[in-house]
Amino acid sequence: MRLEGKNVVVVGVGSGLGPATVYFLLREGANVMMVSRTRDRLEELKRQFSKYGKVDYTVGDPSTAKGAEAAMKAVAKKVKGIDGLALLAGTYVDTPLPQMKESDLDLMINSNIRAPLNALKAALPNMSKQSSVVMVASVLGLYGAAAGTVAYSATKAAVAKSTEVLAAELVGKGIRVNAVAPKSMNHDFEPERDWKKMRKLGDQACPPEDVARVVTWLITDESEWVDGVVIPVHGGARK
Question: Is the pLDDT of residue 239 over 90?
Fold first, then answer.
């Protein structure tokens, strides 16, 4: 197992990518700490995944600096040294400019860029040397343009650039920062299913397992020479 004995914190485990990442991390031997806003959901996931390994949670909302600090202080009481930090919280709403509400823009700034930056800043004092951070950008933040996605695409482009800058900033501490850039993902997830039968190369959307496996790889030592990059995970669906 590639992560045996490693402590990995996953921020954002609502549906799809979050739970799939927790599952693969546990199967690789990691001790997983989940952070999310909803206690009932966290308790449900802990019950579901406990049979695969050591998993726990703390309730927290990193969309504010105060919330992130409280959440990571709670994590530090349970986890001594973070070896991996998966920052998976995010959201999407349609935002054609004429109809875009200020609250829509605020929501995506808070969820897609403020939350991961707050969480990383708050986690840094407890991060181990040679640890790995993984963020979530999007193909829409790298290239191409889809009408009605201006706020989402802009915030995901910010994640992509932040990944490069943070990697340069933290390299001296031995902390790697990378990101995945999915196209579209389905939000369902069931442990142990044969998800590979559910998609083929070129499909517009994929099961969350395909992205979660890349997130997991970026946390393992197999990717120790990968730093400051955004990896498109689109299965060939570039348009």
Answer: no
57 is catalytic: no
Is 33 in contact with 8 (CB distance < 8 Å)? yes
- Judged on CB neighbours under 10 Å (0-12, 13-18, 19+), 8 is buried
C-alpha distances out from residue 43 to 22, 37, 38, 79, 201, Å: 14, 11, 9, 18, 35
3-state secondary structure of 221: helix
Backbone CA torsion sign across 234, 85, 222, 177: positive
Q: Does residue 141 contact residue 156 with C-beta atoms inside 8 Å?
A: yes
Q: Which domains does the chain have, with CATH numbers?
A: 7-233 (3.40.50.720)
Confidence of residue 237 (pLDDT cuts 50, 70, 90): confident
- Residue 169: how many CB atoms within 10 A of its CB? 13
112-152 pLDDT tens trace: 999 999 999 999 999 999 999 999 999 999 988 889 999 99
Burial degree of 114 (CB within 10 A; 0-12, 13-18, 19+): buried
Longest dimension (CA), the chain: 51
Question: What global pTM score does this model have?
Answer: 0.96
Pairing of strands 55-59, 31-36: parallel
